[in-house]
Structure formats: C-alpha cells, structure tokens
Amino acid sequence: MTQLLVVMVSALLVIAASTELGPRLGIASPLVLVAIGVGASFMPMFGSVHIEPEWILEGVLPPLLYSSAVSMPAMNFRREFGAISSLSVLLVVASALVLGVFFMVVLPDLGFAWGVALGAIVSPTDAVATSIIKQTSVSKRVVAMLDGESLLNDATALVLLRTAIVATAASFSFWGSVATFVYSVVAAVAVGWFVGWLNLAVRKRVTDSTVNTVISFAVPFVASVPAEALGASGLVAAVVAGIMTGIRAPRDLSPRNRLSDSQNWRTIELVLEGTVFLTMGVQIRSIVTSVQHDHGAVGMSVLIALGALALTLLVRAVYVGPLLSILAWRARHGEAMQPRIQDMHDKMSTPEGKQEMFEEAQARRRGGMSERQLDRFATRITQGLANIEYFLREPLGWREGAAVVWAGMRGAVTVAAAQTLPEDTPLRSVLILIAFSVAMLSLLIQGGTIGPLLKLVPDRADQDVVDAQITAEHTRLMELLRSTAEAVPEPPHPEGEPTQQTFAFAKKHRLAVIDAQRAALLDERDAGTFDAEVLANALMNLDAAQISIELRGRLAG
Description:
The protein is mainly α. It has 21 helices and no strands. The longest helix is centred in the middle third of the chain and has 51 residues, at 298-348. The protein is globular and about 90 Å long.
C-alpha cells in the first residue's frame, strides 16, 4: 500500500513538473511524460506492469472527452461539422482498409480481416495527443476540426475493430456493419442528449458549488455506461452530453457553479492526460519483452510501425487535399451569395421589411408561414451570413492543410484498443507492439516537429488586417453591451443621503444589467455573429463581475 501511494504521489509531481518545465524547454509536456514513462519502465517495480485497457477506454477517456466537448465552442463545431464528420468516418474507414492491405502484405500470416482490425486501431487521432497543437500558432478552424475529429472518430474505429474481429470468425455483411455503426452513433447521441439535459435540469437546482461540481464528475459515466450497455458508443454519448452541457450551461448554471466546474475540470484534465502519457511509456518494456519471448521480432515490428505511420500520413494527406478544395469552393460560393443574403438580412431587420417577407411567404406557401417560423427563418439568415463571414475571415490554405495532416497524432485510444484484441489473435503481441510503436512514433515525430513545421510554412494572413478585425469585433461587442445596459430600466433614486436600501436597489439593477448582457451575448453566440474567443472572454468578465457583486453583498450582510 505504501509503495502504491509513493507511485501515485510521484506521478502527480512528475505531471506537474513536466507541465511547468516542458514549455520552458521548448518540448511539449506529453513528450516529456512519455520519455519519463519509458525510463521508469526499466525500474524493477514497473518491469511487468500491465494496465487493463478498459480502465483507459471506459474510465479515463469518457471524462476527458466530456471535458473537451464542454469547453469546445459549439458554433465552430457546427460550422466545421461537415469536415469533422468526413474526417471522423470516411478517413478512418479509408485508412483502416489501406492499412489492412499493408499489414496483410508485410505479415503474411495475418490475413486481411486482422489487418483491417489493426488498421482500425491505429487510424483514429487522439483528443489527448492533439492537445499539442493548441500550444502552437494555428488557425482556430484547424483546432475546431482536429478537436471535433478526435472526439468522434473513436466510435468509427472501435465499431470497425469489432466488425473486423467478427469477420475473422464469420461471414462479413457490409450492410450489417453499416447498420451496426448507425445504431451505435444514433443510440449514443440519444443517450448523450438525454443525460446532458438531465444533468442541467438537476444541477441548476443545486446552489452549492462543491456539490454541483461533484455531480458533474459523474455525468460522463452516466452517459457512457448506459450507452455501452445498449451496444452504442459510450465515448460518443459522453461527447454529446458534454456538447449539450457546454451550450446550455451559461443559461442554466450560476457563474459560481460554472467557475467551480472550470477550475476543477482543468485539474482533472491535467491529471488524466498526464496519466495517459505516463502509462504509455511505462508499459513499453513489458510489451517488448513479450514480443521477444514469443517471436523475437522487435526490430521488424518497429519498422512495420514506422511504415504504417508513414502510410497513415500519406492517406491523410491525399484525403485532406481534396477536402480543403471542397471547403474553399464552399467559401467562394458563400461569397457569391453574400450580397443576396445581406439584402434579405437587412430587410428582415426592420418591421416593415419583416412584414413584407411575411406577406410574401403567405402568398407563396399554401399553408402560409407563422410568425414563429418567420423568426426561425430570420435566425437562419443571420447564421448563414455570419458563417460566410467566418469562412472568408479564416481561409484554409497550405499552412492549415499541413497542420491538419501533421497534427493528427495517435495516442491513448490506439494503445488501449490494441490490448482489447482477443487472446487467440494471430501474432497478438506483435500487433500490440506495432500499435504502441505507431502511437509513440506519432507523438515523438509529429508532436516534436509540428511547431517548427508551422514556422516553415508561411502564414498568408495579414497581421494588420487581423488586428483591425479584432478591434472592430471588440468595438461591436462594447456597443452591444452598452446598448443592452441602457435598455434595462433603472430603479427610482430616493432623495437624500444614500441608504442601505439605495445600495440594494443599485446592486439589483447591476445584476439585472449583467443578466441582460449575458443573454444578449448568448443570443449572438447562437447566431455566430461574434468570434467565439471574444465572446468567451466577455462572458468570463460578466461572470467575474457578478461573482464580485454577490461576494461583496455577502460580506456586507
């Protein structure tokens, strides 16, 4: 017991030290942790360590993915959903099939089905590993695409893995596999949506911040465990619960509860991410020893892993190139449509224009159009115009394409999924070592060079133009906050010296202003008319102001 406590405390200190010292040394902290883990694997106490993959897949990944989903800007996720779904499904399937052929060729005793199983294991990018990209100067669109891809592609990979394993023992059904995948995702989305709604319905009635945060720790498991029991993807369920929580929390939860959530979940993320990378390094020696004992082909396994990683990057580059061309065409099409949509938006922004649109819709449609439907149509116009401006403001060029390709790193999912292979899998220990080596090489090669690579590729963005856009964005934001504050009626000011009642009225008015401003900002967030980061900072400032006012009121009371 004492030894276990020493290991746990040491791990926490190592995680803290690497997080603090890694950036100062110019090395991403995950790489430092992997290297420390590899060194620790040669200590006698870690010589034969084995970590059950279920602990990673079912115990570590759901809270990590949930936390990432909560903090991810929902509007950017919606805008990039086409690219995200394409990378999460089609690219994973294509990579697994190509790798299946490669593994079948280099390991003749394996067979195509087992090759596809290993290809499914090494195909998905990892949410924890791609956190490295956030430490570089890269487009927000790239971050949104990589975040979304790493949150959702695990479901594709794990369903494909299960399908390939079944195909080794029974006849393969293409449509059966498609139906299994669709059910896995749809059921997970339904479970995740319900858990996200239930989470907010319960927590908005809990005033104690500590209790509220404790409940939030259970949410990813409340979503993932039932989803897995229903044969769906527990990871997707946790992600959907996180996305719904992130969207609705500013409206349903108090600033103190959300601040408590944010601080505590950042700590949980740091510890779990660090643990994932440490355990990756710690397990490597026992896996190498197993391969040496069974087959003696360690060097060949590493070479195969290097070839698989190169092939994965090649397939990704071949796929991402046309994808970026399609996205660029969509942006040009939106630019061509912009004047027409702007005219419709201008017309809908006035009572007379809105009435004219309503009458036209009534005359054009047999069943007519209700006021509510017209309001929804106006919202879609506003969103469409904001989307066009977003795509034109954040174009995707060679630099962004290189980032999307090179930042697709493998990590915890690959390591854990490899260890779920059945015991009777041909060359099982070799396959596990190949998967481990792909993840390790991906982190070391891609993670260690992504920063210098982005510096070599010139950034097309004009910094003066970017600064001017940010300034204009802040100016519009301040005008929105000012006009919203002016619209909130002030309480009557009693004559004479200020009294306790006067201060109470002033406090109540200030809190009403903050509530109105927050509601206005959230409406703008849903419409997508402001930059997600600018809005997030403005909302944080409002939360801080409200917490400060409430705290002063308590101290005065």
